[in-house]
Amino acid sequence: MIKFDRVSFRYRDDSSKVINDINLSIDRGEWVALIGHNGSGKSTVAKMMNGLLLPSEGQVFIDDIELTEQNLIEVRQKVGMVFQNPENQFVGTTVLDDVAFGLENLGVDPEYMYERIQQSLKQVSMDGYEQHEPHRLSGGQKQRIAIAGVLAMLPEVIVFDEATTMLDPMGRKDLLQTMKTLKEERGLSIVSITHDLTEAAFADRVLVLNQGEVWFEGEPRQLFAKGEELENIGLEPPFVTKLYHQLKSENITLEREPLDFKELVDELWTLHLKK
Amino acid sequence: MNQSLIIGQYVPGESFIHRLDPRLKILIVFIFVLVIFSAETWMSFMTLFTLAIGSAIISRISVSYILKGLKPVWFIIALTFILHIFLTREGNILYSFWGVNLYDQALIQGANISARLFLLILMTTLLTLTTTPISITDAVEALLKPLNKLRFPVHELALMMSISLRFIPTLMQEMDKISKAQASRGLDLTTGPIKERVKAIIPLLIPLFISAFKRAEDLALAMEARGYRGGEGRTKLRELTFQKVDLLAAIVFIGIMIVFWLTRT
Q1: How far apart are the first and last CA of chain B?
Q2: Average pLDDT for chain A
Q3: Which residue, A7, A162, A224, B24, could crosslink A55 as a Cys pair with Cβ 3.0–4.6 Å?
Q4: Is A153 in Cβ contact with B235 (below 8 Å)?
Q5: Residue B53 structural domain
Q6: Chains A, B: CB contacts under 8 A, how many?
Q7: Within a domain: residue B123?
C-alpha cells in the first residue's frame, strides 16, 4: 500500500537529515502506529505519505506507483490525513460544506456529492449535523467531521497525525473507537502517529522512530516488553505495562504481559487460581 | 457583539424573499441603490418606498425587529436632515426665528436625502437579513466570473471571503481568551485615559495575530492534504439555479423600475 524505500529528508540542502535512510511498508487493512518523542521525525514521515513533503533521497510508493509532483492529486485522494488541531482543519462554514470540500477539489459531479457526504457522515455517526457551524461542535466532533471529509474522497489509507492529542479523554476514546470501526468495516489501512503508547496498543504493528531512524518495529506487546529502554528514548510506557514490570520486580509474574486494562484485570483475578 | 445592530446578520426563514436566487437579490439591490439617487418627484419616491416596504413585508421579518435594528442609523438620518435645514439657503423663507431662516428648499432637500439614506439602508439590510453569508459569497463569485477573463482572481476572492466568515467566531473566542489571560496579568482595558486604553489593545492584538498566522499555516496544509489546487477543475456542491420565482421577481422588479423611470422627473 505505502512503501518507503531508503527515504531521507532534510528541510534545507545545508541542514542535517531529519529522516535518515528509512525503509517501511504499510499493508492493506493494517493499523500501524508510528511513535516517537517530539522531534523524532514522525510528523515528517506522515507528511511524506501524501506528498505534502517530497523525500530528499529515496522513493515513496503508493500502490506500487512512485509518488511524484505529477500524481499528487491521485495520491491525496488515496491517502487521507487528519491533523492535530480540530479547529484549524475545518474549511467550510458548515459541516456540509466542509465534508464537500475534498469532493469539490477532486471535481466530483455535484449530483453524487450529497450521497457520498451522507454516507461518510453516517460512518462517523455525525449524520444530522449537516447545517451545524464549527463553533457549535466539540473538538471530538470536529475531528470526526475531518474524518468524514476524508472518507467522502474514498481513500485507502487514513493517516492520523496526532489527531487525538488535543481531545479530552472521552473524545479520544470515541475517536479511537471510530478508527477501529473504519478499519474493521471498510478495510481501511490506518496509520496513527502519536507519542501516546496507550494509543499504540490498538495497532497491529508499531514503528518507533528515534532521531530520524527506525528504532523498533514489531507488535505492541514486544515493544512494551522493552520497559525502561522506552523511557530512555523519551517515551512513557502505559500504566498497565509499568504495573506489570513492578509486579515482576516484586516476584509476582503474570502469565503474559497485558496490553490493556481488561487483560490486566483478567490476569490479576486468575493469578491465584493458576498457582 | 453589538446586539442592537442587525446589519449583516441573517434571520433564517422560508419566505419568497429568502428563497430568491442570491445573484438576483444582489443585482436588484445594486440597481436599486444606483437608481435611488436619480429620484426627484413624489411619485418616484413612492414607487421606491412601495418596493422596499413591500419586500420587507414579504420577507416576514417582524417590523419591530427591523426598526430596532436600524436604531443606530436613525441618528445619522436625523442628523443629515437637520444639517440640511440649517445649511441650505435657497428658495422662499417659510419661517424666521431669532435671525435663523427656514427655507422651503431646505425642507425638501433634507427630506430627499434622508429618504434616500433610509431606502438605501433598508434594502441592503434586507439583503443580508434574508441571505446567508455563504450564499452571498457564492453569488458574488458567480457575478464576478466574467472578470476571470481579465485575470482577476475571482475564485480566490470568494474562498477568502468564506474562510474569513468561518473564522470570525473562532477569532472572537480567541480574543476573549486572550483578553482574560492579559487581564489576569494586570492589563487594564476599562479605566484610565483613552490614550492608555488604546495602548492596552496592543498586548491583545499581537497574540491574536500570531495565532491567526499559525492557524492559516495549519489550514493551508489541511487544504492541500485534501487535494486543493486552486479553482481549476473544481466543482461546487451548491449550484445556483435561476427558477420560476426568480423570473417572477425579476419581471416585477423591471415593472417597478419602468414606473419609476416614467415618474422620475
Answers
A1: 44
A2: 90
A3: A7
A4: no
A5: 1-131+235-265
A6: 94
A7: yes
